[in-house]
Design goal:
Layout: E1 2-11, E2 14-23, E3 28-33, H1 39-47, H2 54-58, E4 64-73, E5 80-85, E6 90-92, E7 102-105, H3 112-122, H4 124-132, E8 137-138, H5 140-150, E9 158-163, E10 166-172, E11 178-180, H6 186-198, E12 204-207, H7 216-233, E13 236-240, H8 244-247, E14 255-260, E15 265-269, H9 272-280, E16 287-291, H10 294-307, E17 314-318, H11 322-335, E18 344-348, H12 350-357, E19 367-370, H13 376-382, H14 384-387, H15 402-414, H16 421-430, H17 433-447
Parallel strand pairs: 3-13, 3-14, 7-12, 12-13, 16-17, 16-18, 18-19
Antiparallel strand pairs: 1-2, 1-4, 4-5, 5-6, 8-9, 9-10, 10-11, 14-15
Helix pairs in contact: 5-7, 13-15
C-alpha cells in the first residue's frame, strides 16, 4: 500500500493539519468540504513542490507567518520540508524531488488548464502545418476516455499531433477545416487537460475543481473512466469536488472530508451519507438493513451498539413478514429504492431463513442472513419457566399458535416494568454465542470499510 503524507502548520486558517492519504483499493481519493475550510490550501501546499512561490502568487504573503511550514512525504521519496525564511519573508526549502513526480492543478484562474486556451490559439500555424503534411494520427486513448465519460461516438474523429513537444488535439472537418481543442466546449476542453495530467507519468496528481464544467451525466461516469487510465500509468490521484453526482460513485473509503472546529481543521475518511448530510443537509443513508419486525430490529440495534462502531450511516427498516422483505430486497435490486444492491443487507428469523433464501433471485447482490435462533419472541416464550419462573402470566391456551402466544408474552414482559428489551436480547444472545458472533461479523462487514 502506497501512502502520501502532508503536514501543514500555520498557513492561512490552518493551525496544524496532518494528512495521511492511504490508497487502499483504488488509485483515487476525493477530498471535499465546505467553502473556505482549506481545501485549496492543501492543493497549494502540494504545488509548492513544483513552484515554491505558489502562495506568493495566489494567496499573498499574509497567508504565511514566521512559524509556517509544510512537510510532504510522497511515496517512497525523501521528505520535502518548506520552512519560513525570514530573509525573504516566505517559505523556502533546500529539499528537491525529481521533476514530474508530483503535479498539482490549482483552481481558476491559476491552474495550467486555464492557461492552455491562449497557448492552443497561439499554435494555430503549427496545427495547419501538421494537417497539410499529414503529420497526425488518430487519438485512440483519448477517444476511449471520452467514450467512457460521454457514452457516445461524438469524438471518434479526434486526432493528435506533436507541437513543440506537446501532444495537441483536434477534429478534422472537410476541406481541411478543423476544430482545435480550445474550440471544444469547456467541459470537453477540461477533460483533455485531465487526460494530459493522468498520462503525464506523474506519480501523484492533485486537482482542484476536477469536475468543473462537466454536466451531471459526465460527472457520474468520470470516476469509473479515470480508474483504468490511472492503473495503466501507475498514477495516484487526489481530487477536490463538491459534486454529489460524482462523489456517490466513489469507492468505499475514498472520500475524505475537511472540517473546521473551534480548535483546528481536520481531514477524515467519511461516508457519502455523512458528507451528503453535513455538506448539503440532505437526508439519506449509506447502508440499509431490511428485516421483518420491530423486535428483530431491536435485536440488531442491540448487537450493533454493543459490538460495532459503524463507519457508514445506516438505517434498519422493519418491512413485515419474510415474503415482504424478500419482495422489497428484489425490488431494490431492480429500482435502487434505497441504493445499490450492495448497500442493502437482509436479516431474517432463523425459522424461515433457509426456505426464504432459496427463493431469492440468483442475481440478487444483497447479502441475506438468518438469526441463530428461530424467532426472538418464540425463544423467550419457549424458555419462560427457566428465565422467569416467578412471573405470573395469563393462560394462553386460547391460542394453539405459539408465535401468537409468544408475541403476547413479549408485550406482557415489557409491560411489567421489571424487564427491559436489552435484558431480553442478552438472553437471546446467550442461546448461541458463536452464531451471534458470526452475525456480528456480517453486520460489521456491512457497516464498516
Amino acid at each position: 500500500m502506497i501512502r502520501d503524507r502532508i503536514k501543514i502548520s500555520n498557513i492561512k486558517n490552518i493551525a496544524c493539519l496532518e494528512i495521511n492519504f492511504d490508497f487502499h483499493n483504488s488509485n483515487i481519493i476525493v477530498l471535499t468540504g465546505k467553502n473556505g475550510v482549506g481545501k485549496t490550501t492543501v492543493v497549494k501546499a502540494f504545488n509548492m513542490i513544483t513552484d515554491i512561490k505558489t502562495f506568493e502568487k495566489s494567496a499573498g504573503l499574509s497567508a504565511i507567518r514566521e512559524n509556517s511550514s509544510i512537510v510532504c512525504d510522497i511515496g517512497e521519496h525523501p521528505p520535502i520540508a518548506f520552512k519560513y525564511n525570514s530573509k525573504i519573508g516566505a517559505l523556502d526549502s533546500k529539499d528537491t524531488l525529481p521533476k514530474g513526480v508530483v503535479k498539482a492543478e490549482l483552481p481558476v484562474p491559476y491552474g495550467e488548464r486555464f492557461k492552455r486556451f491562449a497557448s492552443a490559439a497561439g499554435n494555430d500555424a503549427e496545427y495547419r502545418i501538421s494537417i497539410a503534411t499529414n503529420n497526425y494520427s488518430r487519438a485512440d486513448k483519448l477517444i476511449d476516455f471520452f467514450k467512457s465519460v460521454y457514452l457516445g461516438k461524438s469524438f471518434d474523429s479526434l486526432n493528435e499531433t506533436k507541437i513543440k513537444k506537446e501532444t495537441c488535439y483536434f477534429i478534422l472537418l472537410g476541406n481541411d477545416h478543423y476544430i482545435r481543442e480550445d474550440h471544444f466546449c469547456s467541459g470537453e476542453f477540461f477533460l483533455i487537460q485531465l487526460f494530459r495530467l493522468i498520462t503525464s507519468k506523474a506519480e501523484l496528481i492533485i486537482i482542484d475543481e476536477v469536475d468543473i464544467a462537466l454536466d451531471a451525466s459526465a460527472q457520474v461516469n468520470l470516476y469509473a473512466a479515470m480508474k483504468p487510465l490511472l492503473n495503466e500509468y501507475n498514477t495516484r490521484l487526489i481530487v477536490i469536488s463538491h459534486s454529489l453526482a460524482f462523489m456517490e460513485t466513489v469507492d468505499d473509503g475514498g472520500l475524505y472530508y475537511l472540517e473546521s472546529s473551534e480548535v483546528n481543521v481536520t481531514l477524515e475518511q467519511r461516508s457519502f451519507g455523512y458528507i451528503k448530510s453535513d455538506l448539503y443537509g440532505f437526508k439519506g443513508r449509506d447502508r440499509y438493513i431490511l428485516t421483518e419486525d420491530e423486535v428483530l430490529k431491536g435485536l440488531l440495534e442491540y448487537l450493533i451498539n454493543k459490538y460495532i462502531d459503524p463507519f457508514f450511516e445506516y438505517e434498519i427498516i422493519p418491512i413485515g413478514g419474510n415474503d415482504q422483505v424478500k419482495t422489497m430486497a428484489e425490488r431494490n435490486a431492480d429500482c435502487e429504492i434505497f441504493g445499490r444492491a450492495k448497500t442493502v443487507m437482509v436479516v431474517l428469523d432463523g425459522d424461515v431463513f433457509e426456505a426464504t433464501k432459496r427463493t431469492f433471485r440468483p442475481e440478487l447482490q444483497s447479502k441475506v442472513y438468518g438469526l441463530p435462533v428461530d424467532d426472538c419472541e418464540l425463544y423467550i416464550w419457549r424458555n419462560k419457566e427457566e428465565f422467569f419462573p416467578d412471573l405470573q402470566y395469563p393462560d394462553y391456551n386460547f391460542s394453539d399458535k405459539q408465535k401468537k402466544a409468544s408475541k403476547s408474552y413479549w408485550k406482557l414482559l415489557l409491560g411489567s416494568d421489571k424487564v427491559t428489551p436489552r435484558y431480553l436480547y442478552e438472553l437471546i444472545e446467550r442461546a448461541d454465542q458463536e452464531g451471534f458472533a458470526l452475525l456480528v461479523e456480517h453486520l460489521n462487514a456491512h457497516l464498516n470499510l
